[in-house]
């Protein structure tokens, strides 16, 4: 089982990877998801324990399925 910090790091890296593949800046992803740019940065740096609602917003903004954010 992963620790809390490990899952946050893994999730943040995956969000960053998918965001960059789409060619989005943190600001663009935040705008598309209805979130703040600094919040996206904090997720990518594993500084925030993101809610399921915001995971869904990010997945939709990246045009991906939620489970793909955890691969």
Structure at a glance:
By secondary structure, this protein is mainly alpha-helical.
Outline the structure in words.
- By secondary structure, the chain is an all-alpha fold.
- The protein has four helices and no strands.
- Helix 2 packs across helix 3 (37-44) and helix 2 packs across helix 4.
- The longest helix is centred in the N-terminal third of the chain and has 19 residues, at 4-22.
- It is globular.
Q: Whole-number average pLDDT? A: 94
Low-confidence stretches: none
Gyration radius, rounded: 11 Å
Extended strand count: 0
Give the end-to-end Cα distance, rounded to a whole number of Å. 15 Å
Task: Specify the structural class.
Answer: mainly alpha
The helical percent reads: 55-70%
Q: Number of helical segments? A: 4
Helix and strand sequence: HHHH
What is the general shape? globular
Percentage of residues in DSSP E strands: under 5%
Largest sheet: none
Features of this protein?
71 residues, mainly alpha, 0% strand, globular
Task: Provide the fold topology.
Elements: H1 4-22, H2 26-33, H3 37-44, H4 52-61
Helix pairs in contact: 2-3, 2-4
């Amino acid at each position: 089982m992963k620790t809390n910090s490990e899952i946050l790091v893994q999730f943040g890296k995956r969000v960053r990877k998918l965001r960059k593949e789409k060619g989005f800046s943190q600001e663009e992803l935040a705008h598309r998801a209805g979130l703040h740019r600094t919040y996206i940065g904090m997720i990518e740096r594993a500084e925030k324990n993101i809610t399921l609602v915001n995971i869904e917003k990010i997945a939709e903004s990246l045009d991906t399925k939620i489970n793909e954010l955890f691969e």
